[in-house]
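Justification of computing resources. Each target in the renewal requires a structure prediction run like the one illustrated here; the chain below, 122 residues long, is used simply to show the kind of job we budget for.
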Amino acid sequence: MQAKEPNYELVRERLTKQRKQRGLNLRDAAAEIGVSAPTLSRIERGASRPDVPTLDALTTWLGLDRGAVYNAQASKSQTTPEEVEVLLRADRNLDGHTADALAAIFKAAYKELAGDQRKRTR
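Resulting structure tokens:
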């Protein structure tokens, strides 16, 4: 059985977004994460992939679900509401209660609207 490759693209995209949202330059973000600024720059640009310890540090700093990072193929089998919930939980602008509330609202709306769509296409 072949090992699944981590979802480097997810980490790279979130890293850039999170750093910019927080108004951090590369040096400040690198200091918070515990890596060098040149390393962080290469990862952000997609010029290199992080090693396992760096990937773990990035995953923690970004608040990402480790399953979404390390089981990239498995995450593709998630439903849209499950994927949205992962994204909401990773959003540093939301506390856990707010992320849960938004996820519940999205799930209910999705269920209602997706059900309506299926009825219309029959």
